[in-house]
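Researcher: Before we compare anything, I want clean individual predictions. No alignment, no superposition, just each chain on its own. First chain goes here; please echo the sequence and then give the structure tokens.
Model: Echoing the first chain and its structure:
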Amino acid sequence: MTYDFDYDVAEGVATLTFNRPEVLNALTFDIYAQYRDLLEDLRYDESVRVIVVTGAGDSFCSGGDVFEIIEPLLDEDIKGHLAFTRMTGAVVHNMRQLDKPIIAAVNGMAAGAGSVIALAADLRVASEQAKFAFLFTKVGLTGADMSAAYLLPRIVGMGRAFELLMFGSTIEAETAERYGLVNKVVPHADLLTAAQEWAARLAAGPTLALSMTKRMVNNEWNMDLVSALESEAQAQALMLMGEDHRLFYEAFKEKAKPKFVGR
């Protein structure tokens, strides 16, 4: 399969790099569709256990390309606009529903849809040069785009979410870390190394347990406590019967490090 972005798999880690640095890695219709479909395919690709998403050059992703997307959409009717917004939403849907960890390695500007793609990842590692801008209102659109109004309050809180979505201001990496938007900030030169180190740790871990963890976090967002406790009880009962848990026990007895097999 040929993509309009770079895609590489090594030792269980897939690295996807948006690669249009001349336009700050802006997205096209094709890139959206290819990323959406790749995420769906990765559900069934057992060679990939973790995904790292980053950008080429000095930008992570500046959102939709003004001339490749925004300009042609101006001539579309409501049906065409809705088809587009549903497609972009499907990208986030597939990111959240993929039972594999996704790490965003934010190397520079993450704006518009780029900021939401980073937001939809499970973990965010940011270069000290990274910036975030949920700038939809600045271009006359609602800040509620691609699930930003759903995900952002859950990550940074309601007050910060209103601030970021209503003003559309650009925030630096240090502020993003303080808001809880990123997990950690590292020197620019160390970004990919840091992201790949996390990815390698996850890829070598109990992948079934990790996928169950992501599924449960997603599922429990809208549960009450009683439902969450019962859901976790059932999930953990299944995991207690898993091979990885038994491998942990056998390794513990031998004072060795377990070698998980993802079952």
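Researcher: Okay. Second chain, same rules.
Model: Second chain and its structure:
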Amino acid sequence: MTFLPSAAGDAATSLRVGLLGAGRVAAHLAPALLGAGHRLAFVWSRRVAAAQALAAGLSGPAVPVLATLTAPLPQADIYLLALPDAALPTVLAAVPWPAGALVAHLAGAVGLDVFANTPNVRGGVFYPLQSFSPGRTIAWPTVPLLIEAPVTPTGPEPAARAVLLALAHSISPLVHELASAERLRLHVAAVFANNFTNHLLGIANALLAEACLPPQLLAPLILETVAKAGSQPPFTAQTGPAVRHDAPTLAAHRAALAGHPSWLATYNQLTDSIQLQAQS
């Protein structure tokens, strides 16, 4: 798989953006768009109160909040769907889109085929590769943005591609064009790197709490692990009792986890995976 950085120089003019969704991603993306000089044509959410709260927290001119998505929909250069993956088909089918509207979802694991039943729109992808949590500040210039333009018989549609590139480059220099299949593989990798790692760190913190030990004890180890993963292939940096086939230590760990069957199962699965990888 090859990443091809999109050509810089597509300087963004002020674009009108319709934002559908008011969850974690939208809450971080909306101020970034405004900060880059774009305008929000409206914010909509299935929960009106959430859209109102998001709009109220934005600086600058008041952003319209739509209670319902009825015709005529406010005009925008691009409509961004910051929605749960499962909600995309329903919302796409229900919205009275202007003919030829450029609509892009923000999902990592959803392809362009989600637009198959909405032929009156030009469907694309604007996927920010980052974890979004309340109370965290996102440094958008460090966030890779993966875009995919609507496809025509001759390739990506030029006008839609230009808008997606302009919007992406306005908030991050790390812009890549990636097809649906490769983006899905990237999303799976991201789940391993982020979601699963975070879950394992949660288990580690819980085990420390049971022993009345501070979580800060693990901080240097965590930082070194991440630093090594960024400088060499992680499989080559593997340490610990599993890769050493240290049977006494593995047995002691399993005994210590006897009171947590699900965590013990995770421990055993990861131990098996490490040992299998070391044999390859």
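Researcher: What stands out in the second chain?
Model: Confidence is low (pLDDT under 50) at residues 6-11. Additionally, The first helix runs from residue 24 to 35.
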